Amino acid sequence: MIHEPIYPHVPGHRGVDTSIEAAEAIEMSVGHLQRVALRAIRAAGSRGLTTNELVAVVRIGRDSIQPRTSELREMGFIRDSGARRRNANGKSAIVWVAASARGRAAR
Questions:
Q1: Cα–Cα distance measured from residue 69 to residue 75, given in angstroms and rounded to the nearest whole number
Q2: Dist CA 49 CA 62 (whole Å)
Q3: Are 77 and 99 in contact (CB under 8 A)?
Q4: Is there a contact between 27 and 10 (Cβ–Cβ < 8 Å)?
Q5: Exposed, middle or buried: residue 70 (CB in 10 Å: 0-12, 13-18, 19+)?
Q6: Which helix (H) or strand (E) holds 40?
Q7: How confident is the model at residue 2 (pLDDT cuts 50, 70, 90)?
Q8: CA-to-CA distance for 57 and 26, rounded, in angstroms?
Q9: DSSP structural state of residue 76
Q10: Cα 63–68–73 angle (5° rounding)?
Q11: Bigger pLDDT: 3 or 11?
Q12: Crossing angle for the helix pair 30-43 and 51-58, to the nearest 10 degrees
């Protein structure tokens, strides 16, 4: 039996035609974008990065990077550090850090 890849291994969508189209359009780039995001978060060390900080570091649009943080979290490569920092808009944001060396989120 062949199993179709499922989220977080492929881009998610909300079942709406425009969302499905966007997920299909980015599917080939997802692995690369996940690696770029993960490298930047690992490089930040224990200080971590908010999504907006990550966008600034990797210079890739938020619409392309933010979903990768959700996927990386689901796969256990990054975790919520518990820290929060204010974004430019004044809202509190999760600070993402790399998970344990085994690639699974430390709890």
A1: 10
A2: 13
A3: yes
A4: yes
A5: middle
A6: helix 30-43
A7: low
A8: 20
A9: T
A10: 140
A11: 11
A12: 100
Q: Is 49 helix (H, G, I), strand (E, B) or coil?
A: strand
Q: Give, in order, the Cα–Cα distances in Å from 78 to each of 33, 51, 104.
A: 14, 12, 8
Q: How many CA atoms lie within 13 A of 19 on its CB side?
A: 7
- Phi/psi class of residue 94: alpha, beta or left (left: φ > 0; alpha: ψ in -120 to 50)? beta
- Token digits for 89? 């808009």
Q: Which two tokens stand for residue 66?
A: 């933010």
DSSP letter for each residue of 58-73: HT--HHHHHHHHHHHH
Query: Residue for token digits 């690639």?
Result: 103
- Looking at the chain, which runs of residues are DSSP E strands? 78-86, 92-98
Q: What is the pLDDT of residues 47-106, one digit of tens each?
A: 999 999 999 999 999 999 999 999 999 989 999 999 999 998 899 999 999 997 544 444
- Token pair, residue 102, equals 């085994």
Tokens for 32? 């690369």
Beta bridge partners of 65: none
